[in-house]
Amino acid sequence: MKLLHFFDGRRIEKHLQIDYIIGLRKYCDVVIYGPYEQEHNGKEISPIKYSKETKLLDVVNIIKPDMLVLPEYAIVKSQLDGCEELAKVTDIPKVSIEIDSYEIDKSLKWHTTLGINFIVSRGPFKKEFFDIPSIWLPWSVPDEFYLKEFTKEKLNKNIIFWWW
User: Per residue in 99-121, pLDDT tens?
Assistant: First the structure.
């Protein structure tokens, strides 16, 4: 299976924003496209250099993925002018990974316009927010998935929160 993941080049919290994508490479062929991705990942993972003039639909036609994964609406809306053309992609599933609900009303319209087939919600949304099939996957994952550098010095300590 070949997965095309549009990503916006952020590396603020690498273990949250890109390592899960790299972890997917253990299970399928992942191609990443987006600003600075070729510089970050190299040509093996990001074979097409990002250009604002290149439509994502053209990238889909070149890569020929079995699935297209898009980050949340708040990220994609500023990075992909004319992304409504993705509605023409009907032969592969399109998945959106939503993190926050800042613009949930606009996001829902966008998902429908693009023909998104499935939403992976990283925040706890109510099922009735989406007309599209969705699942909530909490942020928690086993440490060994992608936090190796943090678990070397992991301490077992109790943390107590006190509320007045």
Answer: 766 666 677 788 888 889 998 87
